[in-house]
Each structure stands twice: as C-alpha cells, then as structure tokens.
C-alpha cells in the first residue's frame, strides 16, 4: 500500500548518496553487476581469471550469482562449494535458489557430494539426517561418520522456562565435572531474547558466560560515534557522519547540527571551517573543543589510525560517560578498536577492512580464553554457523520459537526455519540436548505474567524422535507416554495431569 511512497523515499536516498560520494553495501554489488552488463568490460574482467572458486555459495544472493555468470561468458571454469542445508540468511537476501539452480545456470555441471562428517558422532547424524530429510527441495545426502558413540541426542520436555534453565545448568555442570570446559559447551537459540531468563539464572549461580548475537560490533552506538570521526576525515561530504559527531557535545541539537553542516558545505567541505561557525552560547565551548580536535586530526593526514583513535578517545571519554549506560564495557570496545587500528599504516585501509569485514563482537577481538579463563557460550543460531562445540543445548525448541512465529508465512520461510534447526543441531561433536518448555513467558522481565502454552517444534516428527532419547520433568519417559509430552496426540486430560507433576 506504500509502494509509491517507498519508491520516492528510495529515489531521494540514492540521490543523497551520490551527492555525498558514498556507497552502501548494495551499491558495491550493483555497480559491479551493471558494469558487467557491458560486453567489453565483462570480457576484460572475466578474462583475468582462468578459474573462479566460490566458498559458502549457499549464502550468496541473486546479484552475486549474476556477477559470476557475467564473468564466465568465455569459459565455464567455475567451482562453487556450499551446503544447501545451511542456507539460513534470507534476511540478508541470500537465496537457496543459487545452489539449487546452479546446474541449470551452468549446463554440464558435475556435482560432487561430500557426505563424510568429521565432527559429530553417528547417533547425532542419525537424528540430523532425519531432520533435514523433511526439506521438500534439496540435494539429497545422508551424512556419516567414523566417530561412533553410545549417547543418543536427548529431547527434554520442561514445564516452563525456569525448569528449562535449571536443566541446562544441571547438565552444563555435570559435563564440566566430567572434564569438558565451559567454553566447549554452547547454548543455542533462535532469537536473542530466548536466553533472557537463562542469563539471570547463570548470574545467580555465578557461572560465567559470553553471549553472541543481537547487535554486532559496528552496530553499537559508541563504535558508530568513533568511526564517524574517521569517516569525516576520509570524506568531508559524509552528512550522516557529520550529524552524528556534531550532536555529541552538549548544547547541539538537530537544528544547530544542520546549520553547522550548511556552514561546512558553504566552505567547500573544509573540515577546519567548523572553527569559524558562530555557535550559540550554550554550545560555543563544546564546539571550540570539537573544532580543535578535528583540526588536529586533519593535520595528521592518513597515517597512524591507531594514534588518531587514541586522540579521539581522549575527547570522547567524558561524552561516553555522560551519554550512555554501561560506559565501562563500551570503553573496552573502544580500546579494542584502537588496538585493531594500530596494526594499520593507513586510515583509509583500516576503514575499508573494518567496514567490509567487521569483527562480529568484541569477543572476536579478545581471542580465545586463557587457561585460567572459562565461560559458557550463549549464541543465536545465526551467529553459531560454522562453529562447533563438544556439547550443544538447543533451547526453546517449541513451535512459535523454532520455527519462529514471525517466519511461518510461506513454505520458503518454514523451510529456512527447518534448516536453522539443522544448523543448530550439527554444531555439536559429542552431546546434543534439545529442550522445550511447555509454557513460556512473553515478557519475562515486565510486570505482566502473560505467557503461552507451547507444543514441541513441528520439526521433531515421529521419525526424528525415534532416533532420540526422550526425557520429561527430569525423568525418562516410556514410549507410550512419549506422545503426550511432545504434543503429537491430543490426549488433553493426560497432558493437564502432567502439568501438575
């Protein structure tokens, strides 16, 4: 219903980008894609490469596939590696069609199936093979492993979130006592909010943890502030970066920031012209300090970005404590950013590498824990892709959470949710626990006690569960009881009785 308005908005957005000499991520692909529509350019660029190899092809989008096809006009020497069962990034415009349609796009394709798994024990693969077998469209393969094992994956039915938290903690400590460090155990979940109550429970038990997922490193406000200073020095026309920096000092709001930017523009985007702006009394002192900083940074040139960040940090630290909650961990992030920048000779190259390949979190910068450090890993499934642990706990495996009730509007969305479950379950080497609460709160930290009654995720069919051990309320269940806890038969009277045990 807003199609015309959105088109108008986007036209203005594109115009503003071009006026400011900036590109976004889409532009990086679109400029290359449309350049390759020119036969001469496509021949020149594609001809530079005898062979093209692409990894993680299931994570590519249609524009990227079009770029590859344009670069392979003269020859068809292309190899792509990927796993259609791990295509989980449609929210970033990745499409599984690139994998599935590749043989039609490149006739004569030879498909090589890599079906030996070197990570998981065979009982885990028996379960995950049956999970992904529910996908209606896929490259068929059954993974196998030389690593045998006795313990089958467990499907654990919990009364509510509190019981789920208690069970996870019990199992984590049990494996810890068996010699598996916390850092080799991971709790995975569909959405970042699903770990809220578990985080409180872990804190009460003094169990250290690191959480991955949610806001990424470059998406945090304080890192955006720091990067905006460098962006201004690199491109003085960057209006967004100017607006962010100009509103940091006290006494400067959107109106004053707009007036300052107009002043800078009228002075041919000379960054030092900020010092000649007639500021209102409330902002005059702060803008003088900001102007002195910008002038000092501009005189440094493009070299030593680590030194520049350290100088920005001195100016920014009082603003950090005034403007944001939790300033200490935010200050650590800025310190890590400075350490990262110290490894570069050029500010431009630092910005390019940081923006195109940013660290996912400060945990990536900090490195692996030392011998005396240990923590449990909490992670969204999306952030866990490509990683592995000895023990994995998949929590909130209930319909509405996995699959998410926000992603069940089409067969394609449900198929991707199925692949998410598969990715989560295949992260483990030796032990897999799938837990679901029969009741979970919609607002666990609010004043409301609004909650949902759930049923086990639709992905755990009879065929899947037959490869697992079922546990309910902390005790093993008999086969005739199993259908009751998983919600696959509607014996309501019996289910109600079980609620009170």
Account of the 3D structure:
This protein is α/β, with parallel strands linked by helices. The protein contains 22 helices and eleven strands. Strand 10 and strand 11 form a beta hairpin. Helix 8 packs across helix 9 and helix 10 crosses helix 14. About 6% of the residues have low confidence.
Question: What attributes does this structure have?
Answer:
single chain, 501 residues, alpha/beta, 9-stranded mixed β-sheet, two-stranded parallel sheet, 22 helices, 47% helix
Average residue-wise pLDDT: 85
Tally the helices: what do you get?
Answer: 22
- Number of distinct beta strands: 11
Rg over alpha carbons: 27 Å
C-alpha geometry: globular
Break the fold down into its secondary structure elements and pairings.
Blueprint: H1 3-19, H2 25-35, H3 39-46, E1 52-54, H4 62-71, E2 78-80, H5 97-100, H6 102-105, H7 122-132, E3 154-160, H8 161-177, E4 185-189, H9 196-204, E5 209-212, H10 221-234, H11 239-246, H12 254-266, H13 281-300, H14 305-323, H15 327-341, H16 347-356, H17 362-366, E6 376-380, H18 381-384, E7 389-394, H19 411-425, E8 428-441, E9 451-453, H20 462-465, E10 469-472, E11 475-476, H21 479-485, H22 492-499
Parallel strand pairs: 1-2, 3-8, 3-10, 4-6, 4-7, 5-6, 7-8
Antiparallel strand pairs: 8-9, 10-11
Helix pairs in contact: 2-4, 7-19, 8-9, 10-11, 10-14, 11-12, 13-14, 14-15
């Amino acid at each position: 219903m807003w199609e015309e308005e959105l088109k108008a908005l986007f036209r203005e957005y594109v115009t503003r980008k071009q006026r400011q000499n900036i590109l976004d991520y889409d532009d990086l692909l679109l400029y290359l894609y449309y350049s390759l529509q020119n036969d001469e350019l496509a021949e020149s660029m594609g001809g530079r490469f005898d062979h093209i190899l692409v990894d993680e092809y299931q994570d590519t989008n249609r524009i990227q596939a079009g770029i590859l096809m344009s670069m392979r006009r003269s020859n068809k020497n292309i190899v792509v590696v990927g796993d259609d069962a791990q295509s989980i990034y449609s929210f970033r415009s990745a499409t599984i069609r690139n994998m599935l349609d590749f043989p039609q796009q490149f006739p004569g394709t030879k498909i090589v199936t890599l079906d030996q798994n070197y990570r998981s024990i065979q009982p885990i693969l028996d379960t995950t093979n049956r999970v992904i077998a529910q996908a209606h469209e896929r490259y068929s393969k059954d993974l196998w492993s030389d690593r045998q094992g006795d313990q089958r994956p467990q499907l654990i039915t919990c009364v509510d979130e509190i019981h789920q938290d208690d069970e996870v903690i019990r199992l984590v400590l049990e494996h810890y006592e068996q010699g598996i460090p916390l850092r080799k155990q991971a709790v995975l979940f569909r959405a970042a909010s699903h770990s809220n109550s578990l985080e409180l429970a872990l804190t009460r038990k003094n169990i250290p943890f690191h959480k991955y997922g949610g806001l990424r490193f470059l998406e945090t406000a304080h890192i955006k502030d720091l990067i905006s200073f460098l962006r201004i020095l690199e491109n003085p026309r960057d209006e967004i970066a100017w607006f962010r920096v100009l509103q940091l000092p006290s006494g400067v709001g959107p109106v004053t920031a707009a007036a300052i930017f107009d002043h800078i523009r009228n002075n041919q985007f000379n960054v030092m012209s900020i010092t000649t702006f007639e500021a209102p009394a409330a902002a005059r002192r702060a803008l003088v300090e900001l102007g002195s900083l910008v002038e000092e940074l501009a005189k440094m040139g493009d070299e030593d970005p680590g030194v520049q960040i350290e100088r920005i940090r001195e100016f920014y630290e009082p603003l950090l404590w005034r403007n944001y909650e939790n300033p200490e961990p935010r200050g650590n992030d800025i310190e890590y950013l400075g350490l990262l920048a110290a490894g570069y000779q050029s500010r431009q190259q630092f910005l390019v590498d940081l923006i195109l390949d940013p660290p996912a979190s400060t945990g990536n910068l900090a490195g692996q824990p030392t011998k005396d450090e240990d923590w449990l890993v909490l992670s969204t499934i999306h952030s866990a892709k490509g990683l592995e642990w000895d023990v994995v706990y998949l929590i909130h495996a209930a319909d509405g959470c996995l699959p998410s009730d926000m992603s069940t509007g089409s067969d394609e969305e449900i198929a991707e949710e199925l692949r998410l479950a598969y990715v989560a379950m295949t992260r483990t080497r030796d032990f897999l626990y799938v837990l679901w609460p029969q009741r979970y709160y919609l607002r666990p930290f609010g004043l409301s006690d609004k909650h949902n009654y759930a049923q086990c995720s639709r992905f755990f069919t009879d065929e899947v569960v037959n490869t697992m051990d079922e546990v309910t309320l902390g005790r093993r269940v008999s086969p005739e009881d199993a259908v009751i806890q998983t919600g696959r038969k509607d014996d309501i009277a019996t289910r109600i009785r079980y609620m009170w045990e």
